Amino acid sequence: MGMRRVGAVAAAVCVAAAGAGCTSGHGGPGTAKPAEKHVVLVSIDGMHESDLTGFVAAHPQSVLAKLTERGVHYSAAQTPIPSDSFPGLLAQVTGGMPKTTGVYYDDSYAHDLVEAGTTNCAGAKPGAAVSFTEELDKDITKIDGGQGLPNLPDGVLQMTPDPTQVIDPAKLPVDPTSCRPLTPGAYLKVNTVFSVIHDAGHRTAWSDKHPAYAILNGPGATTIDDLFTPEVDSSPAGTSDGDTWVDDNNLTQRYDTFKVDSVINEIGGKDHSGTRQADVPALLGMNFQSVSTAEKLATSGNQPGGYGPDGHTPGPVLASALGYVDSQIGRIVDAIDHAGITDTTTVIVSAKHGQAPMQPQTLTRIDDGPIIDDINTAWAASHPDTPKLITHSVNDDAMIMWFADRSPQAATFVKDRLASRTGVGYDITGKPKPFTASGTDKIYAGADAAAFFGTIPTDPRVPDLYASTLPGTVYTSKTKIAEHGGLAPADRNVLLIVTGPGITHRDDTTTVSTAQIAPTILNRLDLDPQKLQAVAIEHTQALPGT
């Protein structure tokens, strides 16, 4: 996709150099008052720092190039571990790691809750899957999550600003104390920037890929005034047997455009639908899925996904996705300028997570199902009361497991079993490729896993096992060529740019955490970062130079 026209690039420069003699654009009805401040946060899921560097070098007139030239560019930004969507974004909006937020993955397990659907908690066995994914939707096949809107998918902008309305409570884990379903927001242990900003009397907005992103509200009341969450794993046709929005990158780009449209409506002084007047939010933003799916798909539109043989040059699908995202950020920048809020707006661009592997020749696809079955069968042979020792697992490019038996003996058993298992996976062409140690590199189990995450072994949410993997390992029985969740540089070293009034350009090569985005947001809005509970607990600092 081509670069933005000259005017859009000028607007990008204007946002990045706000306060340096830029004009304010054309304010209109519903735009913010000049004294108000705003932050636009954008996550380009899956985008590595190396992707940014390569794209800017190849496209020096792009919007991302202009933002990078005028803002602070943090080239050593690191996501949390696990490098997944939930811990990644929650770090950005809470300032905390999973040990503090209590959220280790979007699909996880809690030893102190009871299973979804439980109505009589007296004597109920503790332990429950916590799957804050598309599976929570009332209707996963529909982009509105089952709201029942007409004219889908194009009519999705009319979707509710409160996604809890399309979450099926029967699918939520149950709090044994109240014996009531636990909402995503209530599951989060700490407050968010949305909470602090909302409590200060300002409007907030966000757009993301599942209704389960209601977790961003945090515990207590609704703190995001306008939360637009079209379901990315639905079908454009609204049927159970069609492709989803992530099965073809052109579809993913179309899906992301709905969210861009919502952000532009909000910048223009309306709600996400564009049909009702509203104050411009103090904090708003969205995630992009297009780069992430372009990295994962083996092919899309008969073109190869991922990277070329050098592991750095984007293939045609990924190149298209990067160009698309740049053009859409340009639309957002144009909208900021048109609304007359350039001089009071900070733009932060980062990513929830990276993706690995980047080198296609290193890929080893391993079906983790037989590995888990083998462990459970072997344990049950001598422990018939525990037929499934691994009660929950989520394995992408790391192994993350929760055990029914949390004893040291069980932890050692699983660790040893994983370390001794050999087998055959498949390379990127589908040819057999042997693996050792279940594809793992380092295995942390039991107390070691808790220590790895900085918490205690009795933490009811911490995984009982976390294993990093050998380069190229992806656990899948399908055709994906990359995943996230691990701790490799390709998983964690993501782009991070901050532009705004008073910020001067520099390339910062010091290691920073994406959790530092949260206190930075509040600083930019003249609010106290110490009001974030995770910031107070972990002593998270704002990004230097902001």
Percent helix, as a range, is 25-40%
Measured by DSSP, the beta-strand proportion falls in 15-25%
Whole-number radius of gyration?
23 Å
Annotated CATH architecture of the largest domain: 3-Layer(aba) Sandwich
* Total count of helical runs of at least 4 residues: 16
Strand arrangement in the largest pleated sheet: 9-1-12-21-2-22
What is the CA-CA span between the terminal residues? Answer: 32 Å
Spans of at least 5 consecutive residues with low confidence: 1-35
Number of domains: 2
Quick synopsis:
The chain is α/β, with parallel strands linked by helices and 546 residues long. The protein has helices spanning 6-16, 49-58, 63-70, 85-94, 98-101, 184-187, 193-199, 249-267, 290-296, 316-338, 369-382, 408-420, 447-453, 489-492, 517-524, 533-538, and strands at 38-44, 72-78, 107-110, 128-131, 174-175, 180-181, 205-207, 226-228, 283-288, 299-300, 303-304, 345-350, 364-366, 390-395, 399-403, 423-426, 432-435, 440-445, 465-469, 473-475, 497-499, 506-513. The protein has two domains: 6-26 and 48-106 and 189-355 and 499-538, Alkaline Phosphatase, subunit A (3-Layer(aba) Sandwich), CATH 3.40.720; 364-480, Gyrase A, domain 2.
